[in-house]
Design goal:
This protein is an alpha/beta fold. Strands 1, 2, 3, 10 and 11 form a five-stranded parallel beta sheet that branches. Strands 4-5-7-6 form a four-stranded mixed beta sheet, with helices on both faces. The mean pLDDT is about 95. Bound molecules: zinc ion.
Length: about 280
Amino acid sequence: MPHVFSVDVEDWYQGIEIPMDQWEGFERRVKASMGDLLDLMARYGVTATCFVLGKVAEEHPDLVRRIHEAGHEIATHGYSHEKVYNLSPERFRRELRHSINLIQDLTGERVCGHRAPYFTITEESLWALDILRDEGILYDSSIHPVFNYRYGIPNADRQPSVIESDDGAQMLEVPVATYPLPDPLPDANIPCGGGAYLRIYPYRVQRWLLRRIEERGEHISVYVHPWEVDPGHPKIDLPFQVSATHYWNLDSTLSKLERLFQDFTFRSYRDVFADELDELAA
Ligand SMILES: [Zn+2]
């Protein structure tokens, strides 16, 4: 069964809680690091969904065209990388619309997927789902059924589910991979869908968890950021929790991804959920 692979396309300073108005002076590295990921995916025949940050599309239109020409799906990661629960619904809608237009102008293709910065659709920001559907988004991958200091709805569905608003509009929610602790252990899910967890776990643990999910006949969705394959990016002082997860084991990512691509088959959300998305678009 093909699984889903995705990349949250943002530069290193955009994923560490520095507000957008302070991004000016930082070294731009996303074209090079994303280039390394594109090369690796090409080598293993992986087609992914790339959730591109609007600000990246604005600064690097050539990168968006390159991703598109390589056959990957392009979806949106919002515009400013501000946590959704810190935005007003009006600003969320404005930024979403702007990011979708930027991408669609570059690729000529409809944007149908969304992932929130830091998975920040939580109990506090469920209002965002109605806005996503309203703006033409067919699937979202922002609700993480785990405990985390920045995100998570621990008891949310672990598997893809159709969510419906009061007016009957529907959208597919596809969380990244988690493994449910078996009884009699506590009722909680172990995150194993990529990002910092891919860097923290030894690869053997990562693979064991994904194989257990496969045995359950379930979908797997794994993601990564371009800056996670760029261990040479600048080190700056950050609050401990941010710094510990951001810089941990960066030089392990490429080799772990290589093994992951050898052990599992990955496609984009658009390909894996083609039937469901056709139905939602009809
Ligand atoms: Zn992000």
